[in-house]
Amino acid sequence: MNVVARLLPRPWTRPVVDAQAGLQAAAEWLARAQDATGSGGVSAYYDATKRQWAGAYPETTGYIIPTFLRYAQFSGQPEYRERAIRMAEWETAIQLPEGGVRAGTMDATQVVPTIFNTGQVLFGWLSAWQQTQDARLHDSAMRAADWLVAAQDPDGAWRRHASPFAAHGVNTYNTRVAFALARASQVLQEPRYLDAAVRNVQWALAQMHPNGWLENNDLEDNERPLTHTIAYATRGMLEVGLIAANHTFVDAAARVAQAVARTQRRDGALPGRLDSAWRAASRWTCVTGNAQMAIIWQRLARETGERSWLPAAEDANRFNLSIQNLAAADGGVRGALPGSHPRSGGYMRNRYPNWAAKFCMDALMLQLEVG
After folding, report:
1. Is 204 helix (H, G, I), strand (E, B) or coil?
2. Example GO biological process term (predicted)?
3. Which of 96, 104, 169, 339 is the most core-located residue (most Cβ within 10 A)?
4. What is the DSSP string of 145-169?
């Protein structure tokens, strides 16, 4: 090969991936993450450097419950329903007396209730109660939702009970908590939960720039939020808007989704962080954010009928599948999704968080249903 030929960029082709195989592998990895704790809860992550599972994580175990319930039906494997119910019962057993859910993992030294974590577990209690009609789960969901409403400020923000493990106490990504309350209003037939959800999204929209970028929207760096927290906020606005039939909320979510889509790389990945002008603020990608945005684009396609959202979602899913290791001998790696790609990137460095696998499963099930 001559020198000129070597300097020319190689033609890029989409990797061949198997969405069904990747979905099953992610489910099996999450099952191993649950078994690793011995409690019913799911390990927060696998540390590939230490080759060690972290403690059970109430927050994300909570929203894995609806994913496993859905996957049990999708796959015809009842084991995943049984696992989800075990998770929900564990969440009830560790619910704090006031109704909230604790911050951090079960081995954290501080035991305090937090707004965001409570909202995420609320999703699990609601879906598990719908499946089982177990009064204990209904009671847990009611107590959690009531605690969230009582903790909300009149303008719709949550300023109390922030996580001691996040740098900022007031967050627009709490619209994902609003989403949980809106879902609770449907399942538990309680209108005041939807009222609280709407107030929070209205507050969040007051933090939005004309280009759709949100203030106060990151765990650590509000000037360069993660696509992970951008997606949390966007999904919250979208779903509360759909439940409340509020087109302003849906349109705001679509504006953000479109802005993020414009940053997508040719390989389907998104920059892990984005600044206020929607410019890439990192060289690595946040794998969870890729999956969450794929969900949002697919939800918009389904709800608006505009299929133009789907290519971005399919590309994001393809990228995530292309970096999933289906053949690793280490069960903590096989089927998992890393926090960042490269794995040494700035989010969950060298770790495989359970929420990456959870959101990837959700995104793939949406795609496979459409396909």
Report:
1. helix
2. carbohydrate metabolic process
3. 339
4. HHHHHHH--TTS---SS--TTSS-S
| Helix (H) or strand (E) run with residue 114 in it | strand 113-114
Helix axes 58-75, 19-37, angle to 10 degrees: 140
**pTM (2 d.p.):** 0.95
Distance, in Å, from the CA atom of 228 to the CA atom of 358, rounded to the nearest integer, reads 13
Q: Which residues pair with 274 in a beta bridge?
A: 280
Residue 6, pLDDT above cutoff 50:
no
CA proximity to 222, closest of 259, 171, 262:
171
How many Å apart are CA 4 and CA 24, to the nearest integer?
Answer: 44
pLDDT tens across 169-190, in order?
799 999 999 999 999 999 999 9
SS3 for 56?
Answer: strand
Lookup: tokens for 324: 């999933």
**Which among 141, 209, 136 is positioned nearest to 181, based on CA atoms?**
141
For the chain, the 3-state helix, strand and coil shares in percent, each to the nearest 5, are: 55, 5, 35
Exposure string of 323-349, with b = 16+ CB inside 10 Å and e = fewer, is bbeeeeeebbbbbbbbbbbebebbbbb
Angle at 268 between CA 344 and CA 312, to 5 degrees: 140
Cβ atoms 90, 40 nearer than 8 A: yes
The token pair that represents 60 in the structure block: 């994300």
Q: CA quadruple 248, 253, 256, 259: dihedral positive or negative? A: negative
How far does the chain reach from its first CA to its final CA, in angstroms?
42
Whether the Cβ atoms of residue 47 and residue 36 lie closer than 8 Å to each other: no
* Residue 114, beta-bridge partner list: 101
* Cα distance between residue 219 and residue 61, in whole Å: 19
Residue 237 is encoded by which pair of tokens?
């606005």
CA angle at 211 for the pair 205 and 212, rounded to the nearest 5°: 35
DSSP conformation letters of 295-310: HHHHHHHHHH--GGGH
Instruction: Note the helical H segments in 305-353.
Output: 310-322
Q: What is the pLDDT of residue 12?
A: 58
CA angle, 45 then 275 then 251, to 5°: 90
Structural domains of the chain ordered from first start? 27-369 (1.50.10.10)
